Amino acid sequence: ARTRAALDAVPARAAFATRLRDLLAVGLLSAPKPAGPWIFHARREDTQKQAILYVRRGISGADRALVDPNALDDAGLVTIDWYYPSHDGRYVAYGLSRGGDELSTLYVIDVSTGARCAEAIPHTQRSSVAWAGDGFYYTAHPPPGPVPAGDEHYHRRIRYHRLGDDPANDELAFGEGRPKEDILVVQASPDGRWAMAIAFRGWAQSDVYLLDRHDAGRGWRTVVEGEEGITTGVLADDALFLRTNLGAPNYTIVRASTIGPERSAWRTVIPESEHAIELFDVSRDGIAVVHLVHATSRVSLWSHDGNSRRDVALPGPGTIVGLNADPSGPLVAFTYESFTSPAVAYAVTSEGAPVEIIRLAAPPGLDVSSFVVEQTAYPSKDGTSVTMFRGHRRDVRPSGEVPTILSGYGGFNVSRTPVYSPGLAAWVEGGGLFALPNLRGGGEYGERWHRDGMLERKQNVFDDFHSAAESLVASGWTSAARLGISGGSNGGLLTGAALTQRPDLFAAVYCAVPLLDMLRYQGFLIARFWIAEYGTAEDPTQYRWLRAYSPYHHVREGVRYPAVLFTTAEGDSRVDPMHARKMAALMQHVTASDPAAVILLRVERDAGHGVGKPLEKQVDDLADQYSFFAWRLGRGAGGLGYAR
Question: Residue 150 — pLDDT band, cuts 50, 70, 90?
């Protein structure tokens, strides 16, 4: 009630909500997945609450709705979490959950008839599925009961399911005895002979194993195990293609025989370069690769033997959000977007130019010619050069008074690259500036960049962020009184650390679904998965790293804090709402004697970490966020009436 009273009184909120509804109505589009004669993709358009899974026959076929979650729930709270077509495209396994909790149930649909099969397999949150033989491998969590309370979020295992069988009888295929925090992924070759299991320990180390299903009694053979690096891969019928940073921090792609997959027999097919390899996939005819060049995507095509064929022309500096190849056919499909362009899906073969498959409609009234996006660089505290995107309206100039939103993430090898953001588009239209730095901890510049922002080096991320803010002020764009910061999840930890380390540098803080108590975080929901990235207070040495920056433990009486809007959701199955709740309570307590203090907490019901949020909830969320910034950063700036 306190938060609603404050935000509903902001004059700019109604204008933001109206404009955001238009900008969000362009929808969402996933990267298409070619399989057999079919191409699958998920798309939300116009006023649809949730994305629908579509199928078409070939590039030019008509789209047919295959799974429509909007028909399953009038409130629009059911969402498709993930989907995996069989190699021949006959079936699709997909996950449904409700209210954003991502606690999926696995279903199977027959593509030709549209009939749903008998399967309904629970506890398949964030599952991977690999079709092989007369069924599929899948990852699942244990039900409540067999493991201690709370451990249902861990102990991921790979099981095998035959279509039509009772899932209770599914064979345990891989994972027994492994650490409960291992994150397991499974793949299978197009011919169904080979299965590959990848076990991740955090975001910096993985093991890879291979099973010959024709000789299953031999068990899983080790491809790589216990090495300090990330190796992932794609299975062809007779080879593994692996993306690895072992001995190559910017990644290389190697080829291994399925008969002799050990590391000593790997052969480099795409060498390491100065630009990190972010994505790749393998079609029948070759390899498609996405490199990151100064935090923007480049696509190139190669032969299976590593001969460079050509670069794929893209519309401009932007991001390849997803890349999927047909291992039994020639097609490679991907989705491109940028700060000013909503998603467009393309298909390409080893010959010819990319063919547009699907284009989301242009946002009504959005004049992209009036937008300017620049990339600059600044020195961090230790002298490291950090790149940063800046976006503004063409007629907005550095004045020291431009309302500015600085956003960031800095962790888990996640790259922050140019993608379409309805909220930022509305902000720029209204005369504001946005800034997005490529902080250490991300993957924009390879594994060294990632490792320089994790564990005992986590403070580098916060220093990079503070330095970004100082550079915006020093370059004459804005001032501390006009500067706001925004981040969610690990980015919520980032803004929480900035709030407590440099409260003098910002006027407004949006801190979404955040981690804030870093001494106890590992005891809630799925947070033990993140120990490899952050460390744990259960270890005396790591306790000292975490205690040095844990935002909750650095809130102090007598400090003039910027205005803060914490947000969380009751259905969040990743970051426990306790973080935002207890931080808001503590900050309201220490600022109780300051009549000008603004510490707000927004808690959503029927929502989770952000995935699967229906359209109107997105409108309300973003309208609150950007009207909060407009209120606190002040000054008339045109179109949307940024005024105190």
Answer: confident
| DSSP 8-class letter at 487 | E
Nearest alpha-carbon partner for 118 in 101, 93, 139, 141: 93
Catalytic positions, written as ranges: 489, 609
Q: Is 567 helix (H, G, I), strand (E, B) or coil?
A: strand
Q: Which two tokens stand for residue 292?
A: 């990151």
Report the percentage of the chain scoring pLDDT > 90. Answer: 93
pLDDT at position 145: 86
Predicted confidence (pLDDT) at residue 490 exceeds the cutoff of 90? yes
Q: Tokens in use for 628?
A: 């909060």
One-character DSSP codes across 248-304: -TT-EEEEEESSS-SGGG-EEEE---SS-EEEEEE-SS-EEEEEEETTEEEEEEE-T
Reported as a pLDDT band with limits 50, 70 and 90, residue 636 is: very low
Q: What is d(CA 148, CA 528) in angstroms, rounded to the nearest whole number?
A: 14
Q: Mean pLDDT for the chain?
A: 95
Residue 112: Cβ within 10 Å count: 11
- Per DSSP, 454 falls in state S
Token pair of 231 as six digits:
């190796």
What separation, in Å, do the N-terminal and C-terminal C-alpha atoms of the chain show?
21
The tens digit of pLDDT for each residue in 492-528 reads 999 999 999 999 999 999 999 999 999 999 999 999 9
Assigned token pair, 18: 């109206």
Query: Cα 145 to chain center, whole Å?
Result: 31
What pLDDT score was predicted for residue 576?
A: 97
Amino acid at 532: A
Task: Look up residue 614 and give its amino acid.
Answer: P
Give CA–CA dist 98/119, Å, rounded: 18
- Tell how strand 508-512 and strand 563-569 pair up: parallel
pLDDT band of 320, cuts 50, 70, 90 = very high
* DSSP state string for 572-609: -SSS-THHHHHHHHHHHHHTTT-TT--EEEEEESS--S
Residues 6+ apart with CB under 8 A from 331: 34, 39, 59, 283, 325, 347, 348, 349
Q: How far is CA 326 from CA 195, 512, 610, in A?
A: 17, 37, 30
User: pTM of the full predicted structure?
Assistant: 0.95
Per-residue model confidence as pLDDT tens digits over 260-274? 999 999 999 999 999
Three-state secondary structure call for residue 623: helix
How many C-beta neighbours within 10 Å does residue 387 have?
A: 16
CA gap 545, 443 in Å, rounded: 22
Can you tell me the mean pLDDT for 111-123?
97
φ and ψ at 11, to 5 degrees?
-60, -35
For residues 337 and 322, the answer to whether their CB atoms sit within 8 Å is: no
Collapse the DSSP code of 495 into the 3-class scheme (helix H, G, I; strand E, B; otherwise coil) and give the result: helix
